[in-house]
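In the previous lecture we treated proteins in isolation. Real proteins rarely work alone, and many bind small molecules. This record shows how such a complex is specified: first the sequence, then the SMILES for zinc ion.
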Amino acid sequence: MAVTQTSISYYGFQSAKQSAPDFKEMVDHGCTTVILAVTEFDFDFRRCVIPEVVDEAHRQGLRVLIDPWGIGKFFGGEQVSLFLQNNVNHRQVSAMTGEALPAACFTSQAFRNYFNNMCLTIARECDADGFFWDEPHYRLPMHTSSFMQLAEDWSCRCPECMKKFEARYGYEMPRFMNEDIAAFRREEALFTLADCSRQLKELKPELEITCCIHATLHDYYNIGYRGYDDWDLVGACPYFDVFSTTIIGWDQPKKFFVDITERTIKMAKKYNKPSERWIMGYYKEPEDFAKVDEVAQLYADLGADRLAAWTFRGGVNTMVAAPHAIELWDRIGENYKRLLKK
Ligand SMILES: [Zn+2]
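The predicted 3D structure, ligand included, written as tokens:
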């Protein structure tokens, strides 16, 4: 089995000059690709340097995928959202309490326009190789038990979602989750990303889209209604090129790593797309760093085409740094160099 791409995420860029040594360090760590996290604040405040940062990464031999990191708190990530700061409306709403939540409703046209404009503008202005959709999700629920689903809160039951649902199904959107709501949420969630991906490809057909969804079991005891829980729906989307699933915590049993990875690869193959598996390279680290080798090798042996890790230098100098951030980063680099197809 051959790994053909090794990625590392990177945030907090300021200029090409300041990022240049970091990109060199990535190459020295066996990375082929940088996943460049662009926050709403970056887009608003530092957009002018994105093209030069992308060019510098290219000069050093790295591919560049743009990660619209945490936009509207629709994607995963720690950063804040200007959309939420600047809009009191267009937020997801709790079905049970009717309260507005600190997450944009990505079914709303206002958010879709905002998100599409951001991605299309970046695509137009810089020479990135693709985009990376990073853990897209509805705010609620994050975790639930499948047999308890009717007792759990969920989102989004905002006026715009309710109006769309009623037009499509012919009755008022209930407060309790049912099959129609689950399908509606999946359709709307997929449309938000598929439509943006379609527009990006119309603009630049060579742009590659990776859709990275949560690595969840979806069995009798545990299902996450994040909106992207039907892996077939995501895998079959013609505008997504790579099927990717997220990080698994180091303390999870080996069987979980195996199960998620096997299912990820199977789904990718079914739709004739490359598969990608993620390694936790920040915040938490395994008690024994040999587990980094074991997991990376497992991914490669099972047939993952691509490996990716969050984040550059183990997140050092942040509150989510791994305890031994640089050692963890070095260990990931050793595995990248060992497993990458020459
Ligand atoms: Zn909504």
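Summary for your notes: The radius of gyration is 20 Å. The chain has one domain: 5-339.
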